[in-house]
Amino acid sequence: MHPRADIFGNKVYTGKCILANRFRNDFRFFHTENFRNVEPLTLNPVHPHSDSGDNPVKKNLYVFAMITILAGTTLTMYGKDDQSMNDADLRTQAEQLAEELIILDSHIDAPYQLTKEYVDWTQPSDRHFDYPKAVKGGLDAPFMSIYISPKYQDGGAKMQADELIGMVQKQVNAHPDKFAIPLSPSDVRKHVTAGKMSVAMGMENGAPIEGDLANLQYFFDWGIRYITLTHAKDNHICDSSYDTTYTWDGLSPFGKKLIPAMNNIGMMIDISHVTDSTAFQVLELSKAPVVATHSGCRKFTPGFHRNMSDTLIKALAKRDGIVQINFGSYFVSDSYRQHRGDRSENIRAYLDEHGLERSDPEAKSYIEEYDQEHPLADADISDVVQHIDHVVQLVGIDHVGLGSDYDGVGSVPTGLEDVSKYPNLIYELLKEGYSESDIRKICSGNFLRVWEEVEHVANDPESG
Ligand SMILES: [Zn+2]
Fold first, then answer.
1. Which domain covers residue 257, as residue numbers?
2. Same domain, yes or no: 253 and 189
3. pLDDT for 26 beyond 70
4. How confident is the model at residue 377 (pLDDT cuts 50, 70, 90)?
């Protein structure tokens, strides 16, 4: 379940000693065999393999470690050589951290799935997101995407947004003991403290603003806290990275008015999906830090403009913004992208050659056969870690987070199959040497910081 939270983004566990809290930023002191029998330093002594007897060797190591800590030196207890010995410990630690830290995922497309078939989120499902899986994965604050397909850009966008917001509210109202909608980072912390999942809302595609700034206030009042300026097509605000029209060469005249209005009201600006010129213009105009709620690094997917270039990541970080890494195989793995590209091309060529439509039975059986002969391997969890690593190497630990795009992407990496799998990612990060404090930032600290800065700019327009 969801333990209480403190102001540092930790869920608070009772009975944890001060000494443990003081040193727990460095995971290396807490997962090793050496501390497992030392009650005061153990995060959670319950471990399937922990022996309860006294072990003089471990105790001696403990004394040595304590001397080293007190001397202010860093002690690496975990090296590549003893990996197998410590693997189970790392797993346990990852599970504990997933429970303990606030995990915020800035983009989950569960509301859109409800438009296909409405299901109760508290019931187990075959979707990426449902409450039981989320609890298992330690997910505390999913940003539910109020996704507006570009087909509504010619009419009906606002109505579609209303409908999706209504569905999120329906879920929350049906289970007030489990869900609450946060309007601020402090709400998120309060909800987690109260043992509830903090179900935030972000709007994917600014089309429902419909050229009227009054609608910005309207959606803010309904609880929307970020707007992804556009989706797969240029809209009345800006250009899309999936479009090739370049209608505005970046922001439209209305878009240029919308950015300061978003700053003034405290609405986060999401530059996932926009073109590079749009993103740079937004960074130029915005007084508050900007977010990319579900994007990857273009370095690993050359030519895929939906992911962010190094130059853009640097510019975003310079304004204290954040990239939330998309988990989708298509976003993180170039070999997956190549295979999928080949598949589309080959199938299209066959259908054209034989004058078939996709819906024809002959086409269907050809596609089935093709997929059997050319199985498409999903990306791997290590691909996601690679994207996180790259942002960290490029701009530091303060500008990266998680924006899975669960229920919005078809293929997700092995090891990150759904919202129950965040502990796997934490495990991989621990294995890579990320400290607990780094992981806290990635899991929610960075995003909550940016959200607070956006609030601050709104409350104090002179700042930023
Ligand atoms: Zn998207």
1. 102-459
2. yes
3. no
4. confident
For residue 231, report the distance from its CA to the centre of ligand 1, in Å: 7
pLDDT at 365: 93
E strands present in 4-62: 4-5, 11-12
CA 228, 231, 236, 238 dihedral sign is: positive
Q: What is the CATH number of the domain that holds 304?
A: 3.20.20.140
Task: Determine phi and psi for 23, rounding to 5 degrees.
Answer: -105, 0
Q: How far is it, in rounded angstroms, from Cα 140 to Cα 129? A: 12
CA of 408 from ligand 1 middle (Å) equals: 7
- Residue 16 in any domain: the answer is yes
Going by their DSSP bridges, the two strands 4-5 and 11-12 should be labelled as antiparallel
CA distance 213 to 108: 26
pTM over 0.85: no
Domain ends where: 65, 95, 125?
95
Residues 6+ apart with CB under 8 A from 36: 42, 45, 47, 50, 58, 89
Q: Which of 95, 123, 150 is the last residue of a domain?
A: 95
Q: Are residues 194 and 277 in the same domain?
A: yes
CA of 328 to the centre of ligand 1 (A): 10
The answer to whether residues 295 and 263 touch, using CB atoms and an 8 Å cutoff, is no
Indicate whether 342 belongs to any domain.
yes
> Are both 138 and 51 inside the same structural domain?
no
For residue 205, is pLDDT > 70?
yes
188 DSSP β-pair partners: none
Residue type, 70: L
pLDDT for 84 equals 56
Number of other residues whose CB lies within 10 A of the CB of residue 102 = 27
Asked whether residue 8 falls in the same domain as residue 119, the answer is no
Q: Could you give the number of structural domains in the chain?
A: 2
Q: Report phi then psi at 428, rounded to 5.
A: -60, -40
State in Å: Cα 454 to ligand 1 middle.
Answer: 22
CA distance 228 to 106: 11
Distance 205 CA to ligand 1 centre (A): 9
Ligand 1 centroid to Cα of residue 296, in Å, is 11
User: Are 73 and 115 in a shared domain?
Assistant: no
Distances (CA, A) of 26 to 6, 62, 93, 438: 19, 15, 12, 9
The per-type count for the chain, helices as H runs and strands as E runs, is 18, 12
Does 464 map to a domain? no
Question: From the CB of residue 194, how many other CB atoms can be counted at a distance below 10 Å?
Answer: 13
Distance 273 CA to ligand 1 centre (A): 7
Q: 75 with 117, same domain?
A: no
In a domain, 265, yes or no: yes
Which tokens go with 157?
Answer: 């966008």
